[in-house]
Design a protein that fits this description.
The structure is a single chain. This protein has 448 residues and is α/β, with parallel strands linked by helices. It folds into two domains: 2-297, Mur-like, catalytic domain (UDP-N-acetylmuramoyl-L-alanine:D-glutamate ligase, 3-Layer(aba) Sandwich), CATH 3.40.1190.10; 305-446, Mur ligase, C-terminal domain (Protein-Tyrosine Phosphatase, Chain A, Alpha-Beta Complex). The chain has helices at 2-13, 21-29, 33-37, 52-65, 80-89, 111-118, 136-151, 165-168, 268-283, 288-297, 323-333, 365-369, 383-392, 406-413, 426-440, and strands at residues 42-47, 70-72, 101-105, 122-125, 157-161, 178-183, 209-213, 219-222, 235-243, 248-254, 257-263, 305-310, 313-318, 340-345, 373-379, 400-402, 419-424, 445-446. A nine-stranded mixed β-sheet has the order 2-3-1-4-5-6-9-10-11, with helices on both faces. The protein has a seven-stranded mixed β-sheet with strand order 16-15-14-17-13-12-18, with helices on both faces. A hairpin with a 2-residue loop joins strand 12 and strand 13 (313-318). Helix 6 (111-118) packs parallel to helix 7 (136-151). The protein binds zinc ion (ZN).
């Protein structure tokens, strides 16, 4: 353990982060070190394709609100070595854990290694999506890996997303006690969904039917053949009262209690992240006040980020609505080690704010000067303003492609194989998403 801590200090000092390597050193010395370093701790383990990081942060906040000291693998190192490093660095001189609680984000594939060593009290599975390159068969493989992990700890309380057919049905295949969470009401466009992630009943292979959709392949699902259907969740959004660029207001049903809560992050998928945290937190015995406070006070550290895959092209969409967010997005894209194209989409509708002068306060020079940056697109009702801003940032007239219509913009952008970053403000993001979902046949995923 000392070796691990020393390694991490050394790596931190030499500016090389030090997330997974100290864990590898510790495990090489003693493969069971994680068991010792987590002994006696109450562990909430979070896995699934999307939403792990945000959900973990909400749980950490709720624990803090309740005065409980907790360990979190903040670095995003979610494999066995990274998790081991985090736990080992959280021990005292005698190698005993210093904090009573841990919230651990765990990669789906690493679950079977981590679970038997940390004995989680609660295992939360957020959802299962096809990841960028996956085919349907691969998401079923991931599901099997999660099952294998859960089966190693049959006493852990399982929190599952009722609206995701691939996730909810895990309950039928394990002995664990289970609680569910979900959204009871339809949301978004109810037509034009091509469900590719969870089209078939996992038990009998029949095509599932949906009474309504909430997000992507999630909603009120049922198998018309074998009776397999969405379980009734104990923690649920029973009404969506308001959704806007900054937060959502919903009616939450938790057990037999109904209350209004604010979720401090925008967008549908953050409703799921908040529900997941509330469900797992309740299962871990946290007070509902602390959980509501934690979901209400969350704010996006990095706006909203969403990924799409169109043919061979990876597209990342980052919502920017103020100079700080635009600065962060610029910082992020210029960290790319491969060549990329970038699009700025700027509307000035009421939900965006009519004043768009903030684009002058962000450091776009950084993007323009970045050697990896290739094509620049500008779009939206205020595309010309963005074009002017970028010219002042040093971009040549001929470098900037102006296309005001989102559908045509997408057609132009998706040629070629370079990575693509799209930075829209709020209403332009809504327009683009709609067009993108048409192009991708409804395939979307979220991270974080
Ligand atoms: Zn069936």
């Amino acid at each position: 353990m000392t070796a691990c801590k020393t390694a991490r200090r050394f790596l931190n000092r030499t500016g090389r982060g030090g997330t997974a390597l100290p864990g590898k050193i510790a495990m090489a010395l003693d493969p069971k070190v994680l068991r010792e370093a987590s002994r006696g701790m109450q562990v909430i383990l979070v896995t699934g394709t999307n939403g792990k990081t945000t959900t973990c942060r909400m749980l950490e906040k709720a624990l803090e609100e309740s005065g409980k000291d907790c360990l979190l693998n903040r670095s995003g190192a979610n494999l066995l070595s990274g998790i081991t490093a985090e736990f080992v660095c959280g021990t005292d001189r005698k190698g005993r854990p210093e904090k009573p609680y841990a919230v651990i984000e765990c990669d789906e594939g690493a679950l079977k290694q981590v679970v038997p060593l940390v004995h989680p009290g609660v295992i939360l599975v957020t959802n299962l999506f096809r990841d960028q390159l996956d085919r349907y068969g691969e998401v079923m493989n991931t599901r099997q890996q999660i099952l294998n992990g859960i089966r190693l700890s049959p006493e852990s309380l399982l929190c599952l997303n009722a609206d995701c057919p691939l996730t909810a049905t895990l309950a039928d295949e394990v002995k664990n006690p289970v609680v569910f969470y979900g959204i009871d009401v339809p949301a978004g466009d109810q037509t034009q969904r091509k469900i590719s992630d969870a089209k078939y009943c996992v038990h009998c292979g029949t095509v599932l039917s949906f009474a309504h959709y909430t997000y992507a392949h999630m909603g009120e699902w049922a198998c018309p053949s074998c009776g397999n259907k969405r379980p009734c969740p104990g923690t649920a959004v029973s009404a969506i009262l308001d959704m806007n660029p900054d937060f959502s207001l919903v009616e939450l049903r938790n057990g037999d209690r109904v209350r209004e809560i604010r979720i401090g992050l925008p967008a549908m998928y953050n409703l799921y992240n908040a529900l997941a945290a509330i469900c797992a937190g309740t299962a871990a015995g946290l007070p509902s006040e602390a959980l509501a406070e934690a979901s209400g006070s969350m704010s996006a550290c990095f706006g909203r980020m969403e990924g799409f895959r169109i043919g061979e092209k990876n597209l990342q969409m980052i919502l920017v609505k103020n100079p700080a967010g635009l600065d962060q997005a610029a910082e992020f894209v210029t960290g790319s080690r491969e060549e990329y194209d970038i699009a700025f989409c700027l509307n000035d509708k009421t939900a965006d704010g009519h004043d768009i002068s903030w684009i002058w306060d962000a450091d776009l020079e950084k993007v323009v000067k970045d050697p990896h940056r290739k094509a620049i697109y500008v779009s939206g009702s205020r595309a010309e303003d963005m074009q002017l801003r970028l010219k002042y940032a040093g971009a040549g007239e001929e470098e900037i492609i102006l296309e005001k219509k989102p559908d045509i913009l997408i057609l132009r952008m998706i040629t070629g194989t370079r990575r693509l970053f799209v930075l829209p403000n709020y209403t332009s993001m809504l327009e683009l998403r709609k067009e993108l979902l048409k192009t991708t046949g409804g395939v979307e995923f979220w991270k974080g």
